[in-house]
Design a protein that fits this description.
The complex is a heterodimer of chains A (539) and B (345). Chain A is an alpha+beta fold and 539 residues long. Chain A is built from 19 helices and 19 strands. In chain A, strands 11, 12, 13, 14, 15, 16 and 19 form a seven-stranded antiparallel sheet that branches. In chain A, a hairpin with a 2-residue loop joins β12 and β13. In chain A, α2 packs across α10. The radius of gyration of chain A is 26 Å and the shape is globular. Helices cover 26% and strands 25% of the residues of chain B. In chain B, the strands form three sheets. In chain B, strands 7-8-9-10-11-18-19 form a seven-stranded mixed sheet, covered by helices on one side. Chain B has a six-stranded mixed sheet with strand order 1-2-3-4-5-6, with no helix packed on it. The chains are: A alpha+beta (539), B alpha/beta (345).
């Protein structure tokens, strides 16, 4: 565990990717396969299931530190990270246990979940008494989840490839799916024999690059070299049909089971040795796509009930064919894959499986016009895919483009601020914005991103100097700063006080030129909602 | 107990003796705890401060003012009020101000720390009726490790960088922190180079009679061959500027109590953070309050509300006098602002 804590420290201490890769390679060469497996598991973003409620951890840490609960909370608001706060307030120990990462997980951490709270507390105190601040931080990170240390999956793959000599593509492929953190899995991951996949393995997803909303489209060349499709907001999904089994994979490398029973059932009609790429969308019987918040009702459920199945029917909209007759056809040009896809789907003839609608247009001008009507179709814009491109791994420039319509914007007034987390600890970075409703400012969105570092410093100083009231960690400030808030969509909501919910709100710029009185009003927001085709309600 | 010190818009004021402590704007008579710019401000007519800090204070304020420099413990009488200065252990010449009137004693700590520091006289406890303390790091997360261990790790970092052909750039405030860092460096490892603002501070320390390891000011005549083995002492505002280009491959580190927080460290995108602070941490602050054994504690500068509440809950009457506008980050900004003007001059 000390080694793993050291690795964490090294990764945390540098912003240079080469140094991070070197630290990882170093670590993998020092530890045994079981430890390497766990390290890979955590760095890939997986976590242990919640072992102990954080409420109890906070309480015990305050007790161990000899401080009242409110003082622990004050500290937490400044530090902005629970594991870090715990590791700092509890006095450091003199001794250090040097058991392996695997030992720690199997004997110290995993059994915790089964114990009654009193025994849990006893064990946690023991853990704190044999860790210094750094190791304790990493242990608490493992327990509280959210293990982020600036290592992307790509970087981890690079390090594993370098360590093992296996090509990065193969590592990426092997890492997809449900990966068990044990010796055998790690040995399989770095096995120099690059043949043999399990039936369930998906392909790495091809991703699109954004075209800035204001950029001239002509730089893409001749429009006839592209296919245009609506860009919906659904769940990206690969359907794997091999050895008479069906697997649905999401982009987060999650195997989706029982969430989309109608699609799983339909996929059984697909011939073996087929892999499809597409998107799951809530779609009514007339074939119109429903808003994302409808689809959201079906996500994260272990079982989908009859009522929901009926209210939110879903359809898999296929846009690519990656494997046909057990043959990897990703290197074929897109137009050939698309032709094969259409032939296949004609034969299938299933209401839950469709190919995406191709937006027909002759020239960019035509497409630009179609794109401008995206909102009426509840789409975010258009997807442009080059007809002669292969299905590439990751975000390769020039193959797939997402061409979104410009976000909606609203000028709003900053009224509340709260300190941020992680890198933004002890800085006021989380803001609540309000619009006018008569003479009153009503909060309508929270936005955490979009300002530059300097601007954040300025707002931070403003908040400290203009606090009128505090509610726990939240500061209410003099309404003075006006910012332009951009968002992707807007709808009515009963859950929000102002009756409006926005999607992906963020700050697009600081309106130094505007006074609070110039900010938008609640009725402006309602007018925006009307401009969408089908205003949906929050049910 | 009627306090002999009161809060005014210009800072702490003693009406009977008619003087201010670390006034925020020009006044007739100022008593200065130490020469950091958020405490020693330009423009007052009369300054009372410690002999140890004379050279540093003269760097900071108007030359045409009247000065009185006293030894630690020496008593000055102002309108029936006895003023004496006692080491605060913060930087060279830093003082706690002890004020006595008719047997009632008030102590204003200024900025202070309890750990030993080879570049200034050590803090000493003073029992008093009324204790006014800073609270820059007044949260239980702040707990300094042994400073000798940290100094060792700085030397180790320097050596590692040398082996990997990188020049080490260590950031600290120009006055106080840099000199303390310098005192902990192992000069046998290689040349120690300095940024202009730091060199000025070091010179003032030398003028005050402190023996510090030799340093080399970075100017046009610096030859390239010195660079890879060297450690550069620079102000934090130099980070990310073109001034650093001359050093080629570098590793950067900051020495500050704020390095305790990972988010703070990462925000500055430095390679390393060394936990060296010239302020009291949580345990020291509580210890100092306990030793002062005062009837009333006022808490200023930093997490004042938190500390005051904690003390009250634990039976020590206390009050926050931290002005709403002054919090942890501003302290840092103040210092950075001054350093950048210094760097420019």
């Amino acid at each position: 565990m000390i080694r793993f804590a050291n690795l964490y420290k090294q990764l945390d201490a540098t912003t240079k990717t080469n140094q991070k890769v070197a630290a990882l390679v170093d670590y993998f060469s020092l530890v045994d396969a079981a430890d390497a497996a766990w390290a890979t598991y955590f760095l890939a973003g997986n976590r242990l299931s919640r072992l102990i409620p954080t409420r109890l951890l906070r309480q015990w840490a305050a007790e161990a530190a000899g401080i009242p609960d409110w003082l622990f909370e004050e500290s937490y608001h400044s530090v902005g990270d629970l594991a870090e706060t715990i590791s700092l307030v509890v006095p450091p120990s003199q001794s250090q246990s040097d058991r392996s990462l695997t030992d720690w997980i199997n004997t110290e951490l995993s059994p915790l979940g089964q114990l009654p709270p009193q025994d849990q507390q006893q064990r946690i105190l023991e853990i704190w008494s044999k860790t210094n601040t750094e190791t304790r931080f990493v242990v608490m990170k493992l327990m509280t989840g959210g293990f982020r240390v600036g290592v992307s999956k790509g970087l981890l793959i690079r390090a594993l490839a370098k360590h093992s000599g296996v090509s990065p593509d193969v590592i990426a492929h092997r890492m997809m799916g449900q990966w068990e953190p044990n010796r055998e899995s790690f040995e399989a991951l770095v096995n120099p024999d690059e043949t043999g996949w399990e039936a369930s393995k998906p392909y790495p997803f091809c991703l699109a690059n954004p075209i800035p909303a204001d950029k001239n489209i002509n730089h893409l060349g001749d429009s006839n070299r592209y296919i245009a499709e609506w860009k919906w907001d659904g769940i990206r999904c690969q359907i794997i049909r091999r050895e008479s089994q069906v697997f649905l994979w999401s982009r987060g490398d999650m195997l989706m089971e029982n969430t989309w029973p109608e699609i799983e059932a339909a996929a059984e009609k697909i011939p073996n040795g087929t892999v499809l790429d597409g998107e799951i969308l809530a779609t009514n019987s007339e074939g119109s796509v429903l808003p994302f918040d409808q689809l959201q009702r079906r996500i994260g459920r272990k079982r989908v009930g009859k009522k929901l199945l009926h209210e939110v029917p879903v359809v898999f909209h296929a846009f690519d064919l990656l494997e046909l007759n057990s043959e990897d056809i990703r290197q074929l040009p897109f137009h050939s894959r698309r032709e094969r896809l259409e032939v296949l789907f004609e034969r299938l003839n299933d209401t839950n499986l469709k190919t995406t609608e191709v937006v027909q247009a002759n020239q960019w001008q035509d497409l630009t016009e179609k794109r401008s009507r995206s909102r009426e179709n509840l789409a975010e814009g258009l997807m442009l895919k080059r007809l002669d491109s292969p299905y590439s791994v990751g975000r390769v420039q020039g193959h797939w483009w997402k061409w979104k319509v410009a976000a909606e914007t609203i000028d709003a007034v900053l009224i509340y601020a709260q300190k941020g987390h992680g890198q933004r600890a002890n800085l006021f970075t989380d803001y609540t914005f309000a619009v006018w409703d008569g003479d009153a400012l009503v909060p309508f969105a929270k936005a955490y991103s979009g300002l530059t570092r300097q601007e954040i410093q300025q707002v931070d100083r403003f908040v400290r100097q203009n606090t009128n009231d505090t509610f726990g960690p939240v500061r209410s400030v003099t309404p003075q700063l006006v910012m332009e808030i951009a968002f992707e969509g807007i709808r009515k909501s009963k859950r929000h006080k102002c009756g409006v919910a926005t999607r992906f709100p963020r700050i697009s710029r600081w309106r130094h030129d505007k006074q609070p009185a110039d900010a938008n009003t609640l009725s402006d927001l309602h007018r925006l909602i009307e401009s969408y085709r089908e205003p949906s309600s929050d049910q | 107990m009627q306090p002999i010190i009161e809060q005014t818009s210009a800072g702490l004021y003693c009406p009977i003796g008619d003087f201010y402590i670390d006034p925020s704007r020009p006044v007739h008579r100022a008593v200065i705890t130490h020469a950091h710019s958020d405490h020693a401000r330009f423009g007052s007519q009369n300054y009372l401060s410690s002999v140890e800090g004379e050279h540093l204070l003269r760097l900071r304020v108007n030359a045409d003012a009247e000065f009185m420099f006293v030894k630690y413990g020496e008593v000055v009488n102002r309108g029936g009020v006895k003023i004496s200065l006692h080491p605060a252990g913060h930087i060279l010449g830093s003082s706690q101000i002890r004020i006595e009137h008719r047997g009632q004693v008030t102590v204003i700590t200024g900025d202070y720390k309890l750990e030993p520091d080879p570049t200034c006289s050590p803090w000493e406890p003073i029992s008093c009726h009324h204790f006014i303390t800073e609270s820059t790091f007044g949260l239980p997360i702040f707990r300094w490790p042994s400073q000798a261990t940290v100094q060792d790790s700085i030397n180790h970092w320097w050596k590692t960088n040398q082996e990997e052909g990188r020049c080490s750039v260590l950031y600290g405030y120009a006055i106080g922190k840099s000199q303390r860092l310098l005192a902990g460096l192992d000069p046998s490892l290689g040349p120690i180079l300095t940024h202009g603002a730091v060199e000025k501070g070091i010179q003032a320390y030398r003028d005050s009679g402190l023996a510090l390891a030799p340093t080399r000011y970075v100017d046009q005549t610096l030859t390239k061959d010195l660079i890879p083995k060297s450690l550069v002492l620079a102000v934090p505002s130099a980070h990310g500027t073109s001034w650093l280009k001359r050093f080629g491959k570098i590793s950067t580190a900051m020495a500050s109590g704020w390095c305790m927080m990972r988010g703070w460290r990462r925000r500055r995108s430095m390679d390393q953070g060394f936990l060296i602070s010239d302020h009291v941490d949580w345990p020291s602050l509580l210890k100092a309050v306990q030793l002062a054994d005062a009837e009333m504690v006022w808490v200023d500068h930093g997490f004042s509300q938190v500390v005051a509440r904690y003390l009250n809950d634990n039976g020590q009457p206390a009050k926050s006098i931290g002005r709403g506008s002054r919090e942890e980050n501003e302290d840092e900004q103040n210092i950075n602002a001054i350093l950048s003007t210094e760097a420019a001059s």
